[in-house]
Amino acid sequence: MEKSKVLIIGGTGYIGKKLVKASLGLGHETYVLQRPDIGLDIDKLQLLFSFKEQGAKLLRASLDDHQSLVNAVKHVDVVISAVAGVPYRGHHILQQLKLVDAIKEAGNIKRFLPSEFGTDPARMKHALEPGRATYDDKMVVRKAIEEANIPYTYISANGFAGYFLGGLCQFAQITPYVDSVVLYGDGNVKDEDDIAMYTIKTIDDSRTLNKTVYIRPPKNILSQREVVQIWEKLIGKELQKSSISVQEFLSSMKGKPYEMQSGMAHYYHVFFEGCLTNFEIGEDGVEASQLYPEINYTTAHEYLKRFL
Q1: How does strand 111-113 pair with strand 211-214?
Q2: What torsion, rounded to 10 degrees, do the Cα atoms 118, 124, 127, 132 define?
Q3: Which residues are catalytic?
Q4: Interatomic CA distance for residues 164 and 253, integer angstroms
Q5: How many C-beta atoms surround the C-beta of residue 155 within 10 A?
Q6: Distance between CA 108 and CA 32 in Å, rounded?
Q7: Which of these, 266, 58, 274, lies nearest to 171 by C-alpha position?
Q8: Is 18 exposed, middle or buried (0-12, 13-18, 19+ CB in 10 A)?
Q9: ∠ CA 197-13-200 to the nearest 5 degrees?
Q10: What does the alpha-carbon distance between residue 170 and residue 176 come to, in Å, rounded to a whole number?
Q11: Can you name one GO molecular function term for this protein (predicted)?
Q12: Residue 248: burial class (beta carbons within 10 Å; 0-12, 13-18, 19+)
């Protein structure tokens, strides 16, 4: 079967650049949106040029220019959006409604993957403010996609290793401590190149059409305490542990900047509620590592070894 042509929106972002790499690596004709208003961001420009050198094609278009977006979409079969969706990196989820309009007008897209890659927003109607805004906005985009009858796949990648594993799940920490660690509650509630690879695998797979794909590799379904134990074995030392109760954690959010409160709200649902794994995948979803067992995914142990 001929591989789909892919357009990636937000290709210079954290997950976007990994999607470009995976798409090229799996042999897809890959296009990356180049915004004309890139300004003096030389790092992004050089990254775009590096994509071009690797075989990607750059398409000049903007989410604020409808016709340019329609023209860009007409070049491809699949559109993957990786626009930022968290306040501390820029919250642009609702801008995808412009992309939905362009895809609807173009009429040629076989699959659209909106920017999700985290907790399944359909399961977060009870989420705390202000973190709830992210989930609500993603559901607005989902509603628009489905009302427009655009074929879709939603990717629920749970927690990125770069943000959770490296810091032993400590809030706002991406490298591990060697002396002590704070556990959320008792630390027993369960919790990227791999995410990108799984994502690209789905686009020509009929089993993922109009489904939510959950990325839950068995060896990486870990509680915070289990993550800490892996690190302790690697460094040959037991960390001093303290814990913070749910009441203390929620109280600590008061008075913090909006962006920090939003992130902490997400942490609450992950580490105190276990929102990533406290449900069974139903008929409207599939699990990525079961669909693609040939992908040799990075385990938490392998990831943490990088910090030795």
Answers
A1: unpaired
A2: 60
A3: 138
A4: 19
A5: 24
A6: 18
A7: 266
A8: buried
A9: 20
A10: 9
A11: pinoresinol reductase activity
A12: exposed
What SS3 state is found at 303? helix
Residue 190 is given by DSSP the state B
**Beta bridge partner(s), residue 91:** 85
DSSP code of residue 180: E
Residue with tokens 């008061």: 254
Q: Give the pLDDT confidence of 140-188 residue by residue, as tens digits.
A: 999 999 999 999 999 998 776 666 777 888 877 778 877 888 888 766 6
d(Cα 139, Cα 12) in Å, to the nearest integer? Answer: 24
Question: CB neighbours of 210 closer than 8 A, spacing ≥ 6?
Answer: 151, 152, 153
The answer to whether 136 touches 265, Cβ cutoff 8 Å, is no
Return the biggest CA–CA distance within the chain. Answer: 59
- pTM metric for this prediction: 0.90
Residue written as token pair 């009441």: 247
* CA dist., res. 217 & res. 220, Å (int): 5
Look up tokens 């289990």; give the residue. Answer: 226
What are 17's two structure tokens?
């650049």
Q: Which of 241, 224, 221 is nearest to 168 (CA)?
A: 224
List pLDDT tens digits, range 43-100. 989 999 999 999 999 999 999 999 999 999 999 999 999 998 766 556 789 999 999 9
Q: Which residues pair with 219 in a beta bridge?
A: none
